[in-house]
Design goal:
This protein has one domain. About 3% of the residues have low confidence. Helix 2 runs antiparallel to helix 3. 76% of the residues lie in helices and 0% in strands. The longest helix has 32 residues. The protein is mainly α.
Length: 204
């Protein structure tokens, strides 16, 4: 006959199995570090190359080359971040003897993709009409919404990360002269903090 310890162990195993089936927990903290590095490099390249001031004063109109170059850099940044996250998460999943393409990871991708695609399209529309002041706020808010949605299918730290991005986005919308600095804080430094927290909490 099973004793109390055996029943507790069975319940723990059942809970672990349910968590693995409903949540993708193989996200790598190094993916956060790398996304932060990519964002910092993209920031330096764009704003040094076109000599754009970090403080926005009034309306801003980018020269025609920048209107093509900036979205191109943004797309490359997104592709590099996604590919890095997939590679590192796949490696982490192998360590944990899990599969990266689980029902939870598919739900995570879908729930992230909707806000990201919507925010990307809105950003292109604003860029087309030279409404650049709100671009940093829009990208931060929609990215934060994507993370908040994804948090239902992964680690709880992602929810805090997403809310932090939304708050920075709202601050960027209110203090528009410092919008680029808020963007840098969100996409660079918050990624470093997120990566560090994942490394410490989950020992990755």
């Amino acid at each position: 006959m099973k004793n109390e310890h055996d029943y507790l162990q069975d319940l723990t195993e059942i809970r672990t199995m349910m968590e693995k089936s409903s949540k993708f927990i193989s996200l790598s903290g190094w993916a956060g570090y790398m996304a932060g590095i990519y964002s910092l490099v993209a920031f330096v390249i764009v704003f040094n190359y076109f000599h754009i001031d970090l403080t926005i004063r009034g309306s801003v109109q980018l020269p025609l080359p920048a209107q093509v170059f900036v979205p191109g850099v943004a797309v490359i940044l997104l592709i590099l971040s996604v590919l890095t996250a997939i590679f590192l998460s796949r490696r982490e999943a192998k360590k944990r003897t899990e599969t990266i393409w689980s029902p939870a990871s598919k739900h995570l991708i879908i729930h992230m993709a909707i806000p990201l695609i919507s925010g990307g399209i809105l950003s292109l529309i604003l860029l087309w009409y030279d409404q650049l002041v709100l671009l940093p706020a829009i990208t931060l808010i929609f990215y934060g919404l994507a993370l908040f949605n994804a948090a239902f299918f992964t680690n709880r730290e992602v929810r805090i990360f997403g809310i932090s991005q939304i708050v920075l986005g709202l601050l960027a919308a209110f203090f528009q002269q410092y919008a680029l600095l808020f963007w840098l804080a969100g996409f660079c430094f918050l990624h470093f903090i997120y990566g560090m927290s994942i490394q410490i909490i989950y020992k990755r």
